[in-house]
């Protein structure tokens, strides 16, 4: 479940919320350091709860961006867009400022409070479209667009994709990729589901990403332990990392087979596959945490084409007509089956892999296509080589030594090396995506060579740990 919730340039281990993000008593509006308008800019003044910035010339296209790392607003400016930006207070910094015309800093998950503030900002600083590539910004973006009459993906479609139970119900109703599923709250609910559908089954939250609390039940004896683990993980996580309380869970039949994701861009209801991503999924205590991705897919062509057609049917069923989507599937003995889908680009550097292999920057399409600044894709791009990512998951404990990075950084196959820990840092137990402590991206002439290069380079990075408490 590739997460797209990481926000800072330097992610904070153990937290998916934008680092430092805390609800503020009052929202803050921050004008950019250097005004974009040709005339001088007077200091902002408060009115109607937000600062009143200078007006932008009407001919200038303006986008409201919700959340995202600095690279997102930078790409918007590269496309020729002016940027109004919503962000958590602790996640806005100097790296954003050169590309942002006006920033409203607040907890944007509180949509009812957000709407009047954004409406006032829109009157003073008009924008034509709203874009979010961040999981927790998708619904606010749709609600703002609807309230201001700006078009775009509807809140109903976003809800169908955010809420896995709603998605299952919609797909069941239209006969697309049916999967046995139900909502549970108690151990009795889980046992009743197992009695009806057999073992194994999967237990997971209805509205989360990043493999949070996704657990398999393989024997009846595991039922109490799995539910205890589900609730334990929910209690350990920062509430800011969750879409909501983990009071209920989705129960689904276990889908056996390799996992892939299909990355798409849609243009007025016409869906185009950008890439198909092969995945490496954790096992045992790691649950379903994703440990690696690669492109292009190495699965047989007929299986991939059936998966692509299923994704098109899914997107039509939920009403997604424009923008990116990231859809995860299992290639089961009965054919491809949908796991979940999101109206955003996949996390885990999937966009970077697609750009390396296919030359398509889905970020730029998501930002520029609503303004006609990028030409619509007419057919799937052809691959030019391969690319892979592998995540670093050392033994939990206190880091004693990190070595091998210099040699890896000099390897010609390397594209990117990120190590988020140093001596003295704590490596947590691997329970969700944010517990991974780094990654390696490598290229190759094809997917096989890229995977081999990536695994070789990842193995050359040593992160030695010792049990916590030992000296």
Structure report:
The protein has 471 residues and is of the alpha+beta class. The chain contains twelve helices and 22 strands. It has an eight-stranded antiparallel beta sheet with strand order 16-15-12-13-14-17-21-19, sandwiched between helices. β13 (270-281) and β14 form a beta hairpin.
The helix tally amounts to 12
Strand order of the largest sheet: 16-15-12-13-14-17-21-19
Shape: globular
Structural class assignment: alpha+beta
Q: What would the keywords be for this entry?
A:
22 strands, five-stranded mixed β-sheet, eight-stranded antiparallel β-sheet, alpha+beta, 471 residues, single chain, 12 helices
Helix/strand layout:
Layout: E1 28-31, E2 46-47, E3 50-51, E4 62-66, H1 70-78, E5 82-87, E6 102-105, H2 111-124, E7 129-131, H3 138-148, H4 155-162, H5 164-174, E8 181-184, H6 187-197, E9 201-204, E10 215-217, H7 223-236, E11 249-253, E12 259-267, E13 270-281, E14 290-295, H8 301-318, E15 323-332, E16 335-342, H9 350-358, H10 362-368, E17 386-391, E18 397-403, H11 405-409, E19 414-419, E20 426-427, E21 438-444, H12 447-460, E22 462-466
Parallel strand pairs: 4-5, 4-7, 5-6
Antiparallel strand pairs: 1-6, 2-3, 8-11, 9-10, 9-11, 12-13, 12-15, 13-14, 14-17, 15-16, 17-21, 18-20, 18-22, 19-21
Helix pairs in contact: 2-3, 4-5
């Amino acid at each position: 479940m590739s997460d797209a919730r990481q926000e800072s340039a330097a992610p904070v281990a153990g937290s998916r919320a934008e680092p430092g993000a805390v609800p503020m008593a009052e929202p803050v509006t921050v004008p950019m350091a250097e005004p974009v308008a040709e005339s001088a800019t007077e200091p902002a003044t408060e009115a109607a709860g937000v600062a009143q910035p200078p007006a932008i010339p009407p001919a200038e296209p303006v986008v409201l961006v919700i959340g995202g790392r600095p690279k997102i607003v930078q790409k918007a400016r590269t496309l020729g867009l002016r940027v109004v930006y919503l962000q958590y207070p602790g996640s806005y910094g100097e790296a954003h400022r050169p590309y942002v015309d006006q920033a409203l800093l607040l907890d944007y998950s509180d949509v009812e409070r957000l709407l009047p503030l954004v409406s006032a900002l829109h009157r003073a600083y008009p924008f034509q479209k709203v874009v979010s590539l961040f999981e927790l910004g998708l619904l606010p973006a749709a609600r703002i667009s609807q309230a201001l009459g700006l078009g775009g993906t509807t809140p109903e479609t976003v809800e169908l994709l955010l809420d896995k139970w709603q998605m299952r119900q919609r797909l069941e109703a239209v006969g697309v990729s049916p999967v046995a599923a139900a909502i549970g709250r108690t151990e009795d609910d889980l046992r009743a589901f197992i009695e009806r559908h057999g073992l194994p089954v999967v237990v997971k939250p209805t509205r989360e990403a990043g493999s949070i609390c996704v657990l398999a039940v393989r024997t009846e004896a595991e039922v109490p332990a799995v539910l205890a683990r589900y609730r334990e993980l929910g209690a350990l996580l920062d509430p800011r990392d969750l879409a909501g309380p983990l009071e209920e869970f989705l129960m689904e039949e276990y889908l056996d087979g390799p996992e892939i994701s299909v990355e798409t861009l849609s243009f007025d209801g016409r869906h185009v596959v950008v890439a198909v991503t092969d995945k490496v999924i954790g096992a045992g205590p790691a649950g379903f945490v994703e440990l690696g991705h690669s492109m292009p897919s190495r699965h047989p062509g007929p299986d991939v084409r059936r998966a692509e057609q299923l994704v098109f049917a899914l997107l039509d069923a939920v009403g997604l007509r424009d923008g990116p989507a990231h859809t995860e599937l299992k290639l089961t003995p009965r054919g491809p089956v949908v796991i979940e889908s999101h109206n955003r680009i996949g996390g885990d550097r999937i966009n970077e892999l697609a750009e390396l292999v296919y030359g398509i920057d889905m970020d730029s399409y998501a930002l520029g296509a609503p303004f006609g600044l990028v030409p619509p894709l007419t057919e799937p791009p052809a691959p030019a080589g391969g690319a892979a990512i592998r995540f670093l998951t050392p033994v939990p404990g206190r880091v004693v030594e990190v070595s091998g990075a210099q040699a890896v950084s000099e390897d010609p196959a390397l594209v990117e090396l990120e190590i988020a820990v140093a001596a003295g840092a704590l490596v947590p137990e691997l329970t969700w995506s944010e517990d991974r402590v780094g990654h390696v991206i490598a290229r190759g002439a094809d997917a096989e060579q890229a995977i081999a290069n990536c695994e070789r380079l990842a193995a050359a990075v040593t992160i030695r740990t010792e049990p916590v408490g030992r000296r």
